[in-house]
Amino acid sequence: MKNSFNNIYQKSPIWIQNIFISVYGYLMFKKRYGKRYHYWFNYYSKKDYSDISMELKNQETEFLRLFNFAVSNSEFYKKLYSKISISEIQSLSDLSKLPIIDKELLRASIASVYTVDEKDAITSFTGGTTGKSLQVRFTKEDFQKRMAYLDAFKSRLGIDPFKVKKATFSGRSLVYNNRTKVFWRHNHAYKQRLYSTFHLSQKNIPYYIVNLNAFKPEVLNGFVSALCEIAEYIKRNKIKLTFVPKGIFTTSETLLPIHRELLEEVFRTTVYDQYASAEGAPFVTECIEGNLHYNIDTGIIETDNNQQMMVTSFTTYGTPLIRYNIGDVIEFKNGVCNCGSSHPLVSKIEGRKVDFLYSATKDKISLSHLADVIKGNPNSIIKMQFVQAQYDSIDVLLVVDEALFVKEHETIILKELKYRFGESMTINLKKVIDIPKEKSGKYSVIKNSIK
Fold first, then answer.
1. Do residues 414 and 371 make contact, with C-beta atoms less than 8 angstroms apart?
2. CA pair distance 371, 367, nearest whole angstrom
3. Are 367 and 356 in contact (CB under 8 A)?
4. What structural domains does the chain harbor?
5. pLDDT digits (tens, 9 = 90+) for 404-425
């Protein structure tokens, strides 16, 4: 049935596809915004986050509730904890007595992890940089609760999630006919225009910009790489935008200071970063003061010596996550925020553990270390990607503006990279017409295949 529907959709004219998208959007709207959504939205919108002792007490209560539920309802956790005295798990301090779950174990055991039948669940699929796909099942309440939390976060920033027009850039396969040059579809049910990230290119971006100017979205959200690709084109070609959004919400990829600076300059608005995951990890959201907060009422984040995250999430009853090594890297900081929230402050989230390269001495060079290289690029460099398959060499793919690019620019880039990777590192600069996107629709700055 699903394949038949996809075939009909692909062969239909755009106006019919927009109807399909809107009908699907309406059905998803009912799933996401039911009675429990409204209950939790009101709760989170009015909640006082200022008392840290109450927040920690609530966190402990939620952890014990999830733990006991998983032991009683998930065959995976029953087996995993068979040698643990369940009665000894009485507080947050007992969390360390439980084993850590890695991605491969979760993937291989996923069928026994579920506590809800697929027909009664809302499903989500992971993938991204690890290349390992995973189907996650949420209970309807958990899914609505997650949506309510994110919408309450936006509401506190002065953005009504139901009234604003939204432009979304994410990895959905929506466009199958390139000849029309219409690289977006419209979800009337949610006042949302969905822009294809798969078709973003220097040749096609002008069509996107014309449509954005006509649509005048009040909110932009989606992949960092897609939004920055459009922003970079606008800035380089000095294009005038006829709208000013109320905010930009970035997802799925690491937001570096250079990304924030570019987006806020071009779109003349504020960027709000947020962290979650398709698996259902606890939230990290950015407040009105511009600080990231680890939202301890949504779960628990632990870190190892490499600052990799082990997550326990309070909204994963369909696919319980307890001490799950999600592979992302987080850095906390001390202090109290002026926004009034007592939730811990986060300095940065660097993203997936594969978001790094190796130097000639096998030291890790993260994406943040490459930020100054990217920021210092001559204006002739449109896009670049770092590819590493062995320790002593790196391929650097460059998409350039031929009208501005000169040989001297290669020398500038090589000098900066040699400084970071060492003189013994072989660095191959390769000019390419374009850099392909991943299956998810994202554009990866780093591709490291060293195991």
1. no
2. 6
3. yes
4. 2-352 (3.40.50.12780), 356-448 (3.30.300.30)
5. 888 888 888 888 888 788 888 9
pLDDT tens by residue, 361-411: 777 776 666 766 776 666 678 888 999 999 989 999 998 888 888 888 888
